[in-house]
């Protein structure tokens, strides 16, 4: 019984064990793998990321100048970050925001980097 009373008083004067989400969202952990970001302007359409991707989330078609990335297949493993020779990728610790429609991202890219245009 005394042990229980001590615990009750401890709980009364200590910080709550839970967080008031969504008003107090938890900050992401440092180095957490949240979202893969792609700077398509740096892309030289080499296809190294497509070969390195275990989830088939990337499709590179140099002849058609097309680059496709499906963020909903991506498991944020980071293989493409290591494989890319021009540093196109970055993984941020922020989680991707919820969406109402899942869309593959498609860009038209040329090797000369003259055009990197989001198509869908
Ligand atoms: S992070 Fe992994 S799964 Fe996502 S696109 Fe890159 S290689 Fe593919
Ligand atoms: S994103 Fe990087 S690895 Fe992928 S095709 Fe472009 S330059 Fe090559």
From TrEMBL:
Start and end residues of each 4Fe-4S ferredoxin-type domain: 34-63, 65-94
GO molecular function (one): metal ion binding
Keywords: 4Fe-4S, Iron, Iron-sulfur, Metal-binding
InterPro entries associated with the record: 4Fe4S_Fe-S-bd (IPR017896), 4Fe4S_Fe_S_CS (IPR017900), Fe-S_Ferredoxin (IPR050572)
Domain of life: Bacteria
A Pfam family this chain is assigned to: Fer4_7
PROSITE patterns reported for this sequence: 4FE4S_FER_1, 4FE4S_FER_2
SUPFAM superfamilies: 4Fe-4S ferredoxins
Keyword hit for Metal-binding: yes
Matching PANTHER family: ADENYLYLSULFATE REDUCTASE, BETA SUBUNIT, FERREDOXIN III
Protein name: 4Fe-4S ferredoxin iron-sulfur binding domain protein
